[in-house]
Amino acid sequence: MAALLCRRSLPRTWLCRRAGQGCGRHYRAALCAELKQPLAIEEVARRPVRPHEVRVEVHFCGVNFADILVCRGQYQEKPPLPFTPGMEFSGTVLETGADVSSVKEGDRVIGVSGFNGMAEECIVDQKTLWRVPEKVSLQEAAVLPVSYGTAILALEHRAHTQPGETVLVTAAAGATGLAVIDVATNVLQAKVIAAAGSDDKCKLAVQRGAQSSVNYSQGSLKEAVRRLAGSRGVDVAIDMVGGEVFLEALRSLAWEGRIVVLGFAGGNIASVPANLLLLKNISAMGLNWGRYQDQDFPVFSRILSSALQSCQQGRIRPYVGSVFKLEEVNDAFLHVIQRKSTGKVLLSLK
Questions:
Q1: What is the tally of structural domains in the chain?
Q2: In the 8-state DSSP scheme, what is residue 241?
Q3: Whole-prediction pTM value?
Q4: 280 and 299 both lie in a single domain
Q5: Distances from the Cα of 13 to the Cαs of 9, 10, 16, in angstroms?
Q6: How far, in Å, CA of 272 to CA of 306, rounded?
């Protein structure tokens, strides 16, 4: 996939603006017309909004690894071709359906969508939009749904993190890792040990609020955590790497510690040694952010409202690592694939 997305492999025809079919206004969108191939930028015809729907002018759209997976055909959701990726966005309301009462034209909003956010406009159900407070920029707001939604769900809803507890977070310089550091430190008053794969990433994690850091490319994560946290270990571990890093994080937990699995960025899925769970009364749990939208929407909505409120109050500070234009969407994907990114990668549609 990385080779397919390299700049030299992108013929200009993939990035041209081609007239869409039909009449009326058109807008530009990134389209996946064939799996495992570069995205095209095309002009798409508008469709009418249904009574419960809202048309939003997109200002920023988050670039998540799930967007890359769905364009490879490797994600659990497999939308029919062609489709527009993009799970989260910020923007302003252009038009509302007859039954919409939660937002009005001109409102600044964030939203979550089933892969249609990488476009100048998108249409979503009114219940998947949240108004953005005045003090929060649309760029900051675009970071909140996936990264901060996941961080808050993991720390509060799943791990029940308490003030003064110690939290270990792996892949700490990524978008979700930095969100975990931000929420744990500044909202929950916990202490954070950040684990990342380079000294530069560790330095960034400390700059963003972690009390200490570990470069797990240079030795045993468990031993480094023991030196920092003592023989007791850490209360909570949030892991996005998997494989041996997950096992080391699991072994670093204290009595009645909790580990939350968010992903497998390292490419390997470890088996959980159940004897460790028994010996120290450890809890190992998973978190799939998107499933809450379908299975427990009140919790999903409350978490996003909480993120917006914390951002308005200045308690959290979303970190944007890179911003690409819509025409640079393939470069943005490559940036994420090659792990060049720290913090959130966004597309700017304005």
A1: 2
A2: S
A3: 0.91
A4: no
A5: 11, 8, 5
A6: 32
CA dihedral 316, 320, 325, 328 (to 10 degrees): -140
DSSP per-residue string spanning 137-193: -HHHHHTIIIIIHHHHIIIIIIT---TT-EEEESSTTBHHHHHHHHHHHHTS--EEE
Residue at 251: amino acid letter: R
Centroid of chain to Cα 213: 22
The parent domain of residue 273 ranges over 159-286
How many whole angstroms from its chain centre is CA 178? 11
CA distances 119 to 10, 56, 151, 218, 344, Å, are 20, 10, 26, 41, 18
Element (H or E) spanning 205, and its range? helix 199-207
DSSP 71-128: HHT-SS--PPSSB---SEEEEEEEEE-TT--S--TT-EEEEE-SS--SBSEEEEEGGG
**Quick check: is 307 in a domain?**
yes
Query: What whole-number distance in Å separates Cα of residue 332 and Cα of residue 325?
Result: 9
Q: Is 144:318 a contact under the CB 8 Å cutoff?
A: yes
How far apart CA 139 and CA 108 sit, in angstroms, is 11
**Same domain, yes or no, for 237 and 305?**
no
Q: Is 1 a member of any domain?
A: no
pLDDT at site 24: 62
Pairing of strands 108-112, 129-131: antiparallel
Give the DSSP H/E element, type plus range, for residue 344: strand 344-348
Walk along the chain (350 residues) in steps of 10 and give the mean pLDDT of each run.
Answer: 39 35 75 97 96 98 95 92 97 98 97 93 97 96 98 98 98 97 98 97 97 95 96 97 96 98 90 94 95 95 97 97 98 91 94
Q: Burial, 142: exposed, middle or buried (Cβ in 10 Å; 0-12, 13-18, 19+)?
A: buried
Enter the tokens of residue 197.
């794969």
